[in-house]
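Lab notebook, bench 4. The sequencing result for the construct came back, and we need a structural model before the next group meeting so we can plan mutations. Quick request posted to the team channel:

Model the 3D structure of this chain.
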Amino acid sequence: LEKKATNGMTQQMETFGQFFRLRNSSCEAELQELMHQIDIMVHSKKTEWERKMKALEAKLESQDQEMEKARRSAEQKSEEVGVLRKKLESAETSQQMIVQKYEGQLNSLKYQLGKLKNTYEKLQLHTTKHSKFNHAENSADLQKLEEFNVKSKEWEKQKSLYQKHIASLDAQRKSLAEKCELFQKQSQAYQAQLNSRKHFLDEAIISSQSDNRRLRCQLDNSQETIKSDEMIIENLKFAMSEVTSSRNMLQKENQQLLQELTRGQEQCQKLQEELSKAKIALQSREDLLRVVELEHIELENEVAKYRASRTRQESVKSFESSSTSCIRLNDELAKKTQELPKVGLDQENQQKDLNKARIHLYQQDNLAGYQSERTKLEPSDLMEKLRQKDITIATIIKDARLLERQLKAELEMKEKQLSKQQISIMNQEALNKENKHLKELMENLEGTLTTGLKPFQEPRESYAVSMSTLQDKNETLQGDLESLRCKLERSLDAAQKHSGTQWDAHQETIQRHTNEDRLFEHEEEWPMDSLMDLRYHTTKDSALGSEGNVSPSHSGMASPSERLSICGEPIMDDIPSFTADGDQHHQRSLHSEIDMSNILMDSLYSKGDSSPPPSQHMSFSATEHFLREEEKRAKEFEKLLGSHIDELHKNSGRTLAKYTRIGQNRHM
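Done. Here's the predicted structure in token form:
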């Protein structure tokens, strides 16, 4: 197509050359200068294209280096993700080991509690057999039993604390598992993004290479077209010489026409000035005519007034002298009859003068109209001459425009070729922009690892606030439990007054109880050491729990079963706060404590005969009724707590899902 276009252009240029060779060729020097300027422009464009190609090659090399750097950074990030996975797996294994240790300790504690229960049953049997001993022995035994009850309650509290701690560890393990899943999903997403970006980068490299090849082909084609253009330019030089000569002739003719136009415009201005002067003269003449007409009207009015005055004078004179007037009038009439033809002649002369003045004014009006018509016709003739000159100028301009259009068509062909090269440059710039965009995406990927855990800080802060509220509620519960403890001590004192006669039959069992207490003390040494270790570990785990998964605060209503759970003793600062699952274990331990207290009361009041006095029976029935009601309330409260805890778990899951989505959206 380009060859066809060049052949067509050469044929057109030959026809133009044949057409213009007929004309005079006088401006060859100007054409040579133009051709020299065209050669300079072509050479400058060649140099610019070569510079641009070198710059594009340098940019492609820099892009290749950047792509290699991006690949290396992606590989480093994948290695970091693998390291993080290994760390998570090691953390999970360590947590599993800790849970197994705590489970072993709990099993050992359960075994010790079973032993304590068996010994307690043996003590009950001994108390039933030897209930006929002295009051002093019974009081000592009761003190030991109370100490034993306190110890058993402490053991059960430790059990509940261990259960709570295990529940918190389970919750932490679940939360860590969820976090691990989230990290795995994020790492998979990151890997997918990295793979897609690698694929995109490979495609960009391939497209850039294809663009380079295409640009090189375009450069070769452009060089060929430049050579063909040089041949065309050589042909155009001959045509341009003739065109410039004809253009100079046309310019001279245009200058002459412009001079004639300026002269015509000056003549028009002079004629307009003469017209304005003639109009002024006509207006002055019209004013004079108006003045003459006004004077004529004034003269006619004066004549009428004169006649009226004469008639009046005559009438007056006739009235003054009626007698004498008649004679005089007759004489005067005779005289006036003689003068009447003279007056008629005077009037006729005046009318003739007026007619002459009117004719003179009419002639002056006709002359002014004729002169005005002549002044109007002169500019019309001049305008016709100017129109003829404009027509000749328009024909010359049309010929010049045809030549300009032919030259513009040739220039448009060259501009199209330049536009193609500019399109290739624009493609290179688009590739550069895409590479910059990929760099920004890689920087965002680096920022995601640092900002990945930020969405989890807000729920941690809310859980910390809920922990503080739970601690306040625990303090209020301690006060309520102290009041209940006082009430229970009063009821126990009343029961001890009724059983005062039963304290004399227990002297023989004192030594046995002392021996058993020594055994219990030896057995308690190991659990106390384990308790210290547990407290040390729970402080660390509670710190971790406060940062990670903290139990949400439940409703502020506290049932009586919760108030009985602590028995008036202050909670240690080392022990972590209660979780939702820990509350359920704590309530179960409360039921076991209540059952143990019932057994102790039965053992105290079971002497030789199985039926206690009526006052004792009433007190036991009231306490049993109170405890049953509290058990019912505790069960109802457990159900409410379970539903509330489920709702809180759902809400926490929703909040975590929201924050994870927000974090993923930010990363995307």
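Residues 242 and 467 are 101 Å apart (CA to CA).
Will bring this to the meeting.
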